[in-house]
Amino acid sequence: MSESVEKIISLYERLTDEEQQQLISVLSRHLGKPLKISTSGLSICSEDEIKIINNTLSGIILTKENVPSILEAHKRLGGTDLPQKISFGYVKDSGK
Questions:
Q1: Sign of the torsion formed by the C-alpha atoms of 81, 84, 86 and 90
Q2: Domain boundaries in the chain?
Q3: Neighbours of 50 (CB within 10 A)
Q4: What 3-state DSSP class applies to 8?
Q5: CB atoms near residue 20 (< 10 Å)
Q6: How far is the CA of 2 from the CAs of 33, 40, 48, 49, in angstroms?
Q7: Phi/psi-derived region of residue 32, left when phi > 0, alpha when psi is between -120 and 50, beta in every other case
Q8: Contacts for 1 with CB less than 8 Å, ≥ 6 apart
Q9: Confidence tier at 26 by pLDDT (50, 70, 90)
């Protein structure tokens, strides 16, 4: 469990102060108890709670690091002829 705690602390430190505050607020509400991201604060959490915190932080970091900038993508594709229609296949007529 100490590896998970170390990973959580490492991921948490990659967030801005505002993101850290939002995360603490949301997770505290979800878990129904005050949360502190530190070795001592996480030591009182259950294994399931540690998994929730770890997965939440991993998802936030993954999103922050891998979502492309929409404005940059728009500028890069600005002059190209993009499709104007999206389709997902055919709907079979039921005869009604």
A1: negative
A2: 2-65
A3: 17
A4: helix
A5: 14
A6: 21, 11, 14, 14
A7: left
A8: 47, 50
A9: very high
